[in-house]
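quick one if you have a minute, typing this from the bus. below you get a single protein, a line of residues and a line of whole numbers that encode the local backbone shape. could you go over both lines and see whether the tokens make sense for that sequence. anything you notice is useful, everything is just below.
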Amino acid sequence: MARGGTRAVVALTAAGVHFDVHEFGNDPSERGYGLAAAAALGVEPDRVFKTLIAVIDDTDHAVAIVPVSGQLSLKELASALGAKRADMCEVHTAERLTGYVVGGISPFGQKRSLPTVIDESCILFDTIFVSGGRRGLDIEIAPDDLIAVLSAVTAPIAAP
């Protein structure tokens, strides 16, 4: 196993892209995982992105990656995917689809490959942070590498 030991780290190592792993203290009872990660890492919340799973048109699923400083616009996500509607996925379904627990869902190394949309604000930064596959572990990666590895599209899916 590569450093960090999660499926996300293994997937990125296999993809041959540059990334850095950052570990930090994590309080399992805390709910604002992304904002806590930004504070622990000493970076602005706009550079830390959360990975969310959505239900698309009642039958399919997709990954949405947005800054922890905002919320996901389900309307914009549906539009980016050419769908009529999007809803948040139930926690147990998101965990089953990805193989990760909520608060530690990484966009990399998921059990199933899902269509992925990342908020276009990611391109404002040289690197961004996403979950490394467990709470208290983040991956710092260039947005272009994230987009390439995940075959993701960018769109304005974040709402303030």
